[in-house]
Amino acid sequence: MEARLNFYGSRLGIKIMKNLASASQSIRNSALPGSVQNLVMLRASQINGCGFCTDMHSKDAAAEGESSVRLNLVAAWREATVFTDAERAALEVTEQGTRIADAASGVTEQAWAAAADHYDEEQLVALVSLIAFINAANRLNVVVKQPAGGYRPGQFG
């Protein structure tokens, strides 16, 4: 399988990818715990059917020490006992923020309040930004049919 389009082969694509990488780095350097960031990126990627991002974020999370049990249970986080209440709150906001077409109201007040119980304002900014960012990256990769399976942890620095 080959991607329909090579973003790195286009001047505009390179510029866009650099800007996306810069935004991603700002989020990565935020106070939102890295383990939560990894879970959020993995879950949104699963929902959106982005094989490339699912591959990348599961491998990066494993390389950062995330357990295979937790990675394997992200898709079934509601039934799994291996996630904290804070992680569950972030995953709920991620699902609702990713599935906005399924619920015109977007993220419910209940889901937002649960997240706000665990994260301060700066962390919430990072969480919301991360959800928007990963959804954009998922859509980009799904549209161009970016192949999955060959990602190496840390490949993009």
Question: What share of residues are in beta strands?
Answer: under 5%
Radius of gyration: 15 Å
The secondary structure category is mainly alpha
Number of strands: 0
Number of helices, where a helix is a run of at least 4 consecutive DSSP H or I residues: 7
The CATH homologous superfamily name equals AhpD-like
The helix content, as a percent range, equals 55-70%
Low-confidence stretches: none
Distance between the termini: 25 Å
Count structural domains.
1
Q: Which topology does CATH recognise?
A: AhpD-like
By CATH, the architecture is named Up-down Bundle
List SSEs in N-to-C order.
Answer: HHHHHHH
Any idea of the CATH class?
A: Mainly Alpha
Largest sheet: none
* Principal-axes shape call: globular
Q: Key terms for this structure?
A:
single chain, 157 residues, mainly alpha, AhpD-like
Summarize the helices and strands and which ones pair or pack.
Layout: H1 11-28, H2 34-47, H3 51-63, H4 68-73, H5 85-98, H6 109-118, H7 121-143
Helix pairs in contact: 1-7, 2-3, 2-5, 2-7, 5-6, 5-7
Please sum up the structure shown.
This protein has 157 residues and is mostly helical. It is built from 7 helices and no strands. Residues 26-95 form the Carboxymuconolactone decarboxylase-like domain.
